[in-house]
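Box 3.1 A note on notation
Throughout this textbook, protein chains are presented in two layers. The first layer is the amino acid sequence; the second is a token string describing backbone geometry. Keep the layers aligned when reading.
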Amino acid sequence: MEYTMRLTATPFEKLRNGLKVIELRLYDEKRKRIKTGDTILFISLKDPNDTLLTRVTDIYTFASFEDLYRALPLEDLGYSAEEVDAASPKDMEEFYSPEEQAQYGVVGFRLDLIPQENAAQG
């Protein structure tokens, strides 16, 4: 099954360049349908014609981003070695409130990029 998600510019580029291999989301009804082996097409919010096709290789579920940040390598989430010390699960509150996290839980999708012949390159 293929799913589509939009992604802001910085995480999109980190995913494209292999600097981010786990995408974080709420574990809402839409995300609960995603299984290992499914594909996710990411669309850049900066340029809707710029896309990345990925395959889900692993799925990690947690009650909160705080739990997720303690369990998974921060570098896999897109933090550089210089950013790791300052990395905080509160960074995700820009996108998802603590109340939403408590309601749905959170998920990390480990992804492999799938080469696309006709994908736009930013």
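The CA atoms of residues 69 and 89 lie 6 Å apart. The longest strand covers residues 51-62.
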